[in-house]
Amino acid sequence: MNSLQRRILTDGDVLPGGILKVDSFLNHQVDVRLLRQMADDFYAAFQNTKIDKILTIEASGIAIACYVAERFDVPLVFAKKGRHKNVGNDVLTAEVFSFTKGTSYNVTVSRKYLQPGERVLVVDDFLANGQAVLGLKKILDEAGCELVGAAIAIEKAFQPGEKLLRDAGIDVKALAVIESMSDDGQIVFRDED
Amino acid sequence: MNSLQRRILTDGDVLPGGILKVDSFLNHQVDVRLLRQMADDFYAAFQNTKIDKILTIEASGIAIACYVAERFDVPLVFAKKGRHKNVGNDVLTAEVFSFTKGTSYNVTVSRKYLQPGERVLVVDDFLANGQAVLGLKKILDEAGCELVGAAIAIEKAFQPGEKLLRDAGIDVKALAVIESMSDDGQIVFRDED
Protein backbone atom coordinates (compact mmCIF):
# COMPACT_ATOMS: atom_id res chain seq x y z
CA MET A 1 0.00 0.00 0.00
CA ASN A 2 1.48 3.39 -0.98
CA SER A 3 1.46 6.70 0.92
CA LEU A 4 -1.64 8.04 -0.80
CA GLN A 5 -3.65 4.86 -0.20
CA ARG A 6 -2.72 4.86 3.47
CA ARG A 7 -3.65 8.51 3.78
CA ILE A 8 -7.02 7.96 2.11
CA LEU A 9 -7.81 5.24 4.62
CA THR A 10 -6.87 7.40 7.60
CA ASP A 11 -8.09 10.85 6.50
CA GLY A 12 -10.43 10.41 3.52
CA ASP A 13 -14.16 10.88 4.07
CA VAL A 14 -16.65 8.76 2.17
CA LEU A 15 -19.96 10.50 1.56
CA PRO A 16 -23.11 8.84 0.21
CA GLY A 17 -23.29 8.67 -3.57
CA GLY A 18 -19.73 7.58 -4.27
CA ILE A 19 -18.10 10.80 -3.12
CA LEU A 20 -14.63 10.70 -1.58
CA LYS A 21 -13.52 13.86 0.20
CA VAL A 22 -9.76 14.36 0.38
CA ASP A 23 -10.02 18.03 1.36
CA SER A 24 -7.86 17.63 4.43
CA PHE A 25 -4.68 16.61 2.62
CA LEU A 26 -5.03 16.90 -1.17
CA ASN A 27 -7.36 19.51 -2.62
CA HIS A 28 -8.14 22.21 -0.09
CA GLN A 29 -5.65 21.73 2.70
CA VAL A 30 -2.55 20.20 1.11
CA ASP A 31 0.14 18.06 2.72
CA VAL A 32 3.14 18.85 0.54
CA ARG A 33 5.20 16.02 2.02
CA LEU A 34 2.59 13.60 0.74
CA LEU A 35 2.80 15.24 -2.70
CA ARG A 36 6.51 14.57 -2.80
CA GLN A 37 5.96 10.89 -1.97
CA MET A 38 3.28 10.70 -4.66
CA ALA A 39 5.69 12.26 -7.17
CA ASP A 40 8.20 9.52 -6.34
CA ASP A 41 5.53 6.89 -6.98
CA PHE A 42 4.59 8.50 -10.30
CA TYR A 43 8.26 8.65 -11.22
CA ALA A 44 8.58 4.93 -10.54
CA ALA A 45 5.58 4.28 -12.80
CA PHE A 46 6.78 6.40 -15.75
CA GLN A 47 10.56 6.47 -15.35
CA ASN A 48 11.13 4.48 -18.55
CA THR A 49 9.07 6.94 -20.58
CA LYS A 50 10.67 9.97 -22.17
CA ILE A 51 8.75 13.00 -20.89
CA ASP A 52 9.26 16.60 -22.01
CA LYS A 53 6.47 18.33 -20.14
CA ILE A 54 3.76 17.90 -17.51
CA LEU A 55 0.24 19.13 -18.28
CA THR A 56 -2.58 19.52 -15.76
CA ILE A 57 -5.76 21.56 -15.28
CA GLU A 58 -6.23 24.26 -12.68
CA ALA A 59 -6.87 24.30 -9.81
CA SER A 60 -6.55 21.11 -7.80
CA GLY A 61 -4.20 19.38 -10.25
CA ILE A 62 -1.54 22.08 -9.89
CA ALA A 63 -0.09 21.11 -6.52
CA ILE A 64 0.46 17.48 -7.47
CA ALA A 65 1.72 18.36 -10.92
CA CYS A 66 4.37 20.72 -9.53
CA TYR A 67 6.07 17.88 -7.71
CA VAL A 68 5.76 15.49 -10.63
CA ALA A 69 7.31 18.13 -12.91
CA GLU A 70 10.15 18.63 -10.45
CA ARG A 71 10.72 14.88 -10.14
CA PHE A 72 11.03 14.54 -13.92
CA ASP A 73 12.90 17.88 -14.13
CA VAL A 74 10.62 19.25 -16.85
CA PRO A 75 8.33 22.32 -17.08
CA LEU A 76 4.74 22.24 -15.93
CA VAL A 77 1.89 23.73 -17.92
CA PHE A 78 -1.53 24.12 -16.40
CA ALA A 79 -4.57 24.51 -18.61
CA LYS A 80 -6.87 27.37 -17.68
CA LYS A 81 -10.43 26.47 -16.93
CA GLY A 82 -13.75 28.04 -17.73
CA ARG A 83 -12.59 31.23 -19.36
CA HIS A 84 -11.58 32.40 -22.80
CA LYS A 85 -13.52 31.13 -25.70
CA ASN A 86 -11.16 30.10 -28.45
CA VAL A 87 -9.43 33.37 -29.21
CA GLY A 88 -7.71 32.54 -32.45
CA ASN A 89 -4.64 30.64 -33.39
CA ASP A 90 -2.64 31.38 -30.24
CA VAL A 91 -4.80 29.31 -27.94
CA LEU A 92 -5.82 25.66 -27.97
CA THR A 93 -9.25 24.95 -26.48
CA ALA A 94 -11.32 21.90 -25.64
CA GLU A 95 -14.77 21.62 -24.16
CA VAL A 96 -15.06 19.33 -21.14
CA PHE A 97 -18.37 18.03 -19.85
CA SER A 98 -18.58 17.77 -16.07
CA PHE A 99 -20.94 15.00 -14.99
CA THR A 100 -20.73 16.29 -11.42
CA LYS A 101 -22.01 19.73 -12.35
CA GLY A 102 -24.04 18.77 -15.40
CA THR A 103 -22.44 21.52 -17.47
CA SER A 104 -19.51 22.01 -19.80
CA TYR A 105 -16.50 24.22 -19.35
CA ASN A 106 -13.58 25.14 -21.58
CA VAL A 107 -9.97 24.31 -20.95
CA THR A 108 -7.37 26.35 -22.80
CA VAL A 109 -3.61 26.25 -23.27
CA SER A 110 -1.46 28.78 -25.08
CA ARG A 111 -0.13 27.13 -28.19
CA LYS A 112 3.42 28.36 -27.57
CA TYR A 113 3.74 26.17 -24.47
CA LEU A 114 2.99 22.97 -26.36
CA GLN A 115 5.49 22.50 -29.15
CA PRO A 116 4.94 19.89 -31.88
CA GLY A 117 6.69 16.64 -31.07
CA GLU A 118 6.80 17.15 -27.31
CA ARG A 119 6.00 14.12 -25.19
CA VAL A 120 3.54 15.15 -22.49
CA LEU A 121 2.44 13.43 -19.29
CA VAL A 122 -0.98 14.54 -18.04
CA VAL A 123 -1.41 14.74 -14.26
CA ASP A 124 -4.70 15.09 -12.40
CA ASP A 125 -6.07 14.50 -8.93
CA PHE A 126 -9.16 12.45 -9.82
CA LEU A 127 -10.22 10.14 -12.64
CA ALA A 128 -13.96 9.43 -12.70
CA ASN A 129 -15.55 10.03 -16.10
CA GLY A 130 -12.32 10.82 -17.90
CA GLN A 131 -13.62 13.90 -19.67
CA ALA A 132 -10.89 16.24 -18.44
CA VAL A 133 -8.09 13.99 -19.67
CA LEU A 134 -9.87 13.48 -23.00
CA GLY A 135 -10.12 17.27 -23.32
CA LEU A 136 -6.40 17.62 -22.71
CA LYS A 137 -5.76 14.84 -25.25
CA LYS A 138 -7.70 16.81 -27.85
CA ILE A 139 -5.53 19.86 -27.12
CA LEU A 140 -2.33 17.79 -27.31
CA ASP A 141 -3.45 16.21 -30.59
CA GLU A 142 -4.12 19.65 -32.04
CA ALA A 143 -0.71 20.87 -30.82
CA GLY A 144 1.03 17.91 -32.45
CA CYS A 145 2.22 16.64 -29.06
CA GLU A 146 2.22 13.05 -27.92
CA LEU A 147 0.23 12.15 -24.82
CA VAL A 148 2.50 9.57 -23.19
CA GLY A 149 0.29 8.80 -20.22
CA ALA A 150 -2.10 9.94 -17.54
CA ALA A 151 -0.76 10.06 -13.98
CA ILE A 152 -3.81 10.12 -11.71
CA ALA A 153 -3.84 10.36 -7.95
CA ILE A 154 -7.22 8.76 -7.27
CA GLU A 155 -9.21 6.69 -9.74
CA LYS A 156 -12.78 5.63 -9.19
CA ALA A 157 -12.77 2.29 -10.98
CA PHE A 158 -16.55 2.03 -10.65
CA GLN A 159 -16.94 4.97 -13.03
CA PRO A 160 -16.25 4.79 -16.77
CA GLY A 161 -13.18 7.03 -17.05
CA GLU A 162 -10.47 4.37 -17.05
CA LYS A 163 -12.08 2.37 -19.85
CA LEU A 164 -12.69 5.49 -21.95
CA LEU A 165 -9.05 6.53 -21.61
CA ARG A 166 -7.67 3.06 -22.32
CA ASP A 167 -9.96 2.80 -25.35
CA ALA A 168 -8.40 6.07 -26.52
CA GLY A 169 -4.97 4.45 -26.23
CA ILE A 170 -3.89 6.31 -23.10
CA ASP A 171 -1.53 4.68 -20.60
CA VAL A 172 -3.30 5.29 -17.26
CA LYS A 173 -1.48 4.91 -13.96
CA ALA A 174 -3.36 5.76 -10.77
CA LEU A 175 -1.83 5.66 -7.31
CA ALA A 176 -5.07 4.75 -5.58
CA VAL A 177 -7.60 2.79 -7.65
CA ILE A 178 -10.83 2.57 -5.72
CA GLU A 179 -12.88 -0.49 -6.65
CA SER A 180 -15.72 0.29 -4.30
CA MET A 181 -16.83 2.56 -1.50
CA SER A 182 -19.70 1.72 0.80
CA ASP A 183 -21.85 4.34 2.48
CA ASP A 184 -20.48 3.27 5.87
CA GLY A 185 -17.04 4.47 4.78
CA GLN A 186 -15.42 1.18 3.69
CA ILE A 187 -12.94 1.70 0.82
CA VAL A 188 -11.64 -1.19 -1.29
CA PHE A 189 -8.53 -0.53 -3.41
CA ARG A 190 -7.69 -2.60 -6.45
CA ASP A 191 -4.85 -4.96 -5.65
CA GLU A 192 -2.09 -3.97 -8.08
CA ASP A 193 0.17 -6.94 -7.31
CA MET B 1 18.87 41.02 -7.89
CA ASN B 2 17.09 37.76 -7.01
CA SER B 3 16.09 34.85 -9.25
CA LEU B 4 12.57 36.10 -9.90
CA GLN B 5 13.73 39.62 -10.80
CA ARG B 6 16.29 38.24 -13.23
CA ARG B 7 13.68 35.98 -14.79
CA ILE B 8 11.18 38.82 -15.18
CA LEU B 9 13.80 40.83 -17.07
CA THR B 10 14.65 37.96 -19.41
CA ASP B 11 11.23 36.33 -19.94
CA GLY B 12 8.54 38.74 -18.74
CA ASP B 13 6.44 40.55 -21.34
CA VAL B 14 5.31 44.11 -20.74
CA LEU B 15 2.03 44.94 -22.45
CA PRO B 16 0.53 48.42 -22.75
CA GLY B 17 -1.55 49.49 -19.75
CA GLY B 18 0.73 48.29 -16.99
CA ILE B 19 0.32 44.60 -17.72
CA LEU B 20 3.19 42.22 -17.02
CA LYS B 21 2.86 38.74 -18.52
CA VAL B 22 4.77 36.02 -16.70
CA ASP B 23 2.92 33.18 -18.41
CA SER B 24 6.09 31.50 -19.60
CA PHE B 25 7.49 30.72 -16.16
CA LEU B 26 5.02 31.53 -13.38
CA ASN B 27 1.32 31.28 -14.05
CA HIS B 28 0.62 29.17 -17.12
CA GLN B 29 3.86 27.42 -17.88
CA VAL B 30 5.67 27.01 -14.56
CA ASP B 31 9.39 26.63 -13.90
CA VAL B 32 9.38 24.66 -10.66
CA ARG B 33 13.10 25.24 -10.10
CA LEU B 34 12.42 28.97 -9.98
CA LEU B 35 9.62 28.33 -7.48
CA ARG B 36 12.06 26.59 -5.18
CA GLN B 37 14.48 29.54 -5.35
CA MET B 38 11.59 31.91 -4.65
CA ALA B 39 10.61 29.80 -1.63
CA ASP B 40 14.15 30.15 -0.32
CA ASP B 41 13.90 33.92 -0.70
CA PHE B 42 10.55 34.01 1.09
CA TYR B 43 12.03 31.85 3.83
CA ALA B 44 14.86 34.33 4.29
CA ALA B 45 12.32 37.15 4.58
CA PHE B 46 10.07 35.44 7.13
CA GLN B 47 12.39 32.99 8.90
CA ASN B 48 12.17 34.85 12.22
CA THR B 49 8.37 34.69 12.18
CA LYS B 50 6.53 31.72 13.69
CA ILE B 51 4.29 30.34 10.95
CA ASP B 52 1.75 27.53 11.35
CA LYS B 53 0.15 27.51 7.93
CA ILE B 54 0.33 28.94 4.41
CA LEU B 55 -2.84 30.32 2.81
CA THR B 56 -3.26 31.20 -0.87
CA ILE B 57 -6.04 31.51 -3.45
CA GLU B 58 -6.54 29.17 -6.38
CA ALA B 59 -5.33 28.89 -9.05
CA SER B 60 -2.08 30.69 -9.79
CA GLY B 61 -1.05 31.09 -6.15
CA ILE B 62 -1.00 27.36 -5.56
CA ALA B 63 2.26 26.47 -7.26
CA ILE B 64 4.30 29.09 -5.41
CA ALA B 65 2.55 28.41 -2.12
CA CYS B 66 3.37 24.68 -2.28
CA TYR B 67 7.07 25.40 -2.20
CA VAL B 68 6.75 28.05 0.51
CA ALA B 69 4.76 25.57 2.63
CA GLU B 70 7.39 22.93 2.09
CA ARG B 71 10.19 25.36 2.98
CA PHE B 72 8.48 26.26 6.27
CA ASP B 73 7.37 22.62 6.75
CA VAL B 74 3.74 23.56 7.37
CA PRO B 75 0.45 22.68 5.64
CA LEU B 76 -0.89 24.69 2.73
CA VAL B 77 -4.53 25.72 2.43
CA PHE B 78 -5.85 27.20 -0.77
CA ALA B 79 -9.03 29.25 -0.75
CA LYS B 80 -11.56 28.28 -3.40
CA LYS B 81 -12.60 30.98 -5.78
CA GLY B 82 -15.89 32.00 -7.27
CA ARG B 83 -18.08 29.22 -6.03
CA HIS B 84 -20.12 28.48 -2.94
CA LYS B 85 -22.04 31.29 -1.42
CA ASN B 86 -21.61 31.22 2.34
CA VAL B 87 -23.09 27.85 3.23
CA GLY B 88 -23.34 28.14 6.96
CA ASN B 89 -20.96 27.88 9.81
CA ASP B 90 -18.59 25.38 8.20
CA VAL B 91 -17.25 27.79 5.59
CA LEU B 92 -15.61 31.19 5.83
CA THR B 93 -16.28 33.51 2.90
CA ALA B 94 -15.10 36.90 1.73
CA GLU B 95 -16.07 38.91 -1.31
CA VAL B 96 -13.17 40.16 -3.40
CA PHE B 97 -13.51 42.90 -5.98
CA SER B 98 -11.39 42.41 -9.08
CA PHE B 99 -10.42 45.72 -10.66
CA THR B 100 -9.14 43.83 -13.69
CA LYS B 101 -12.48 42.21 -14.39
CA GLY B 102 -14.71 44.84 -12.84
CA THR B 103 -16.65 42.23 -10.88
CA SER B 104 -16.59 40.57 -7.50
CA TYR B 105 -16.00 36.96 -6.68
CA ASN B 106 -16.15 34.96 -3.46
CA VAL B 107 -13.24 33.21 -1.80
CA THR B 108 -14.05 30.48 0.68
CA VAL B 109 -12.13 28.35 3.14
CA SER B 110 -13.47 25.50 5.26
CA ARG B 111 -13.42 26.64 8.85
CA LYS B 112 -11.85 23.39 10.04
CA TYR B 113 -8.60 24.16 8.20
CA LEU B 114 -8.10 27.48 10.02
CA GLN B 115 -7.96 26.90 13.75
CA PRO B 116 -8.17 29.82 16.21
CA GLY B 117 -4.74 31.05 17.22
CA GLU B 118 -2.92 29.76 14.14
CA ARG B 119 -0.34 32.10 12.64
CA VAL B 120 -0.85 32.23 8.88
CA LEU B 121 1.34 33.54 6.07
CA VAL B 122 -0.57 34.51 2.93
CA VAL B 123 1.16 33.80 -0.40
CA ASP B 124 0.11 35.14 -3.79
CA ASP B 125 1.62 35.68 -7.21
CA PHE B 126 0.64 39.34 -7.75
CA LEU B 127 -0.11 42.34 -5.57
CA ALA B 128 -1.81 45.18 -7.42
CA ASN B 129 -4.93 46.45 -5.70
CA GLY B 130 -4.60 44.25 -2.64
CA GLN B 131 -8.20 43.09 -2.60
CA ALA B 132 -7.43 39.37 -2.59
CA VAL B 133 -5.14 39.64 0.44
CA LEU B 134 -7.67 41.84 2.24
CA GLY B 135 -10.32 39.19 1.54
CA LEU B 136 -8.09 36.50 3.03
CA LYS B 137 -7.43 38.77 6.03
CA LYS B 138 -11.18 39.02 6.62
CA ILE B 139 -11.41 35.22 6.57
CA LEU B 140 -8.45 34.88 8.95
CA ASP B 141 -9.92 37.48 11.31
CA GLU B 142 -13.20 35.59 11.35
CA ALA B 143 -11.37 32.32 12.01
CA GLY B 144 -9.46 33.84 14.91
CA CYS B 145 -6.14 33.33 13.12
CA GLU B 146 -3.31 35.81 12.98
CA LEU B 147 -2.15 37.06 9.57
CA VAL B 148 1.60 37.27 10.09
CA GLY B 149 2.46 38.54 6.63
CA ALA B 150 1.90 38.58 2.89
CA ALA B 151 4.53 36.89 0.75
CA ILE B 152 4.04 38.23 -2.76
CA ALA B 153 5.95 37.24 -5.87
CA ILE B 154 5.41 40.40 -7.93
CA GLU B 155 4.18 43.71 -6.59
CA LYS B 156 3.13 46.59 -8.78
CA ALA B 157 4.20 49.50 -6.59
CA PHE B 158 2.42 51.95 -8.91
CA GLN B 159 -0.93 50.46 -7.85
CA PRO B 160 -2.49 51.01 -4.41
CA GLY B 161 -2.29 47.49 -2.97
CA GLU B 162 0.85 47.84 -0.90
CA LYS B 163 -0.37 50.96 0.89
CA LEU B 164 -3.77 49.41 1.57
CA LEU B 165 -2.17 46.31 3.08
CA ARG B 166 0.34 48.23 5.17
CA ASP B 167 -2.47 50.51 6.41
CA ALA B 168 -4.25 47.32 7.49
CA GLY B 169 -1.15 46.39 9.51
CA ILE B 170 0.04 43.64 7.19
CA ASP B 171 3.75 42.89 6.83
CA VAL B 172 4.21 42.77 3.03
CA LYS B 173 7.31 41.23 1.46
CA ALA B 174 7.48 41.06 -2.32
CA LEU B 175 10.33 39.44 -4.25
CA ALA B 176 10.00 41.75 -7.23
CA VAL B 177 8.64 45.23 -6.54
CA ILE B 178 8.02 46.97 -9.83
CA GLU B 179 8.25 50.74 -9.56
CA SER B 180 7.45 51.37 -13.19
CA MET B 181 6.99 49.72 -16.55
CA SER B 182 7.15 51.61 -19.81
CA ASP B 183 5.26 50.59 -22.91
CA ASP B 184 8.57 49.83 -24.64
CA GLY B 185 9.18 47.06 -22.11
CA GLN B 186 11.48 48.77 -19.63
CA ILE B 187 10.99 47.48 -16.07
CA VAL B 188 12.32 49.35 -13.02
CA PHE B 189 12.49 47.42 -9.75
CA ARG B 190 12.56 49.11 -6.38
CA ASP B 191 16.04 49.02 -4.95
CA GLU B 192 15.67 47.09 -1.69
CA ASP B 193 19.17 47.84 -0.40
In short:
2 copies of one chain form a homodimer. Chain A is an alpha/beta fold. Chain A has 5 helices and 11 strands, in the order αβββαβαββββαβαββ.
What does this structure look like?
Two copies of one chain form a homodimer. Chain A is α/β, with parallel strands linked by helices. Chain A has five helices and eleven strands, in the order H-E-E-E-H-E-H-E-E-E-E-H-E-H-E-E. Chain A has an eight-stranded mixed beta sheet, sandwiched between helices. A two-stranded antiparallel sheet of chain A has the order 1-2. In chain A, strand 4 (53-57), helix 3 (61-72) and strand 5 (76-81) form a beta-alpha-beta unit. The first copy, chain A, is globular and about 50 Å long. The model of chain A has no long low-confidence stretch (mean pLDDT 94). Chain A binds chain B through residues 23-24, 28-33, 35-36, 58-60, 62-63, 66-67, 69-70, 75-78, 80-81, 109-110, 112-113, and chain B through 23-24, 28-33, 35-36, 58-60, 62-63, 66-67, 69-70, 75-78, 80-81, 109-110, 112-113. Strand 5 of chain A pairs antiparallel with strand 3 of chain B.
List keywords for this structure.
homodimer, 193 residues, 35% strand, globular
Structural class of chain A: alpha/beta
Query: What is the general shape of chain A?
Result: globular
For the largest interface in this structure, which chains are involved and how many residues does each contribute?
A-B, 29 and 29 residues
Strand portion of chain A: 35-45%
CA-based gyration radius of chain A: 16 Å
Mean pLDDT of chain A: 94
Q: Order of strands in the sheet with the most strands of chain A?
A: 6-7-5-4-8-9-10-11
User: Oligomerization state of this entry?
Assistant: homodimer
**Cα distance, first to last residue of chain A?**
10 Å
Question: What's the helix-strand series of chain A?
Answer: HEEEHEHEEEEHEHEE
Percent range of helical residues of chain A: 25-40%
SS elements, strand count of chain A: 11
The largest pleated sheet of chain A is described as: 8 strands, mixed
Instruction: Identify low-pLDDT runs of chain A.
Output: none
**Total number of helices of chain A:** 5
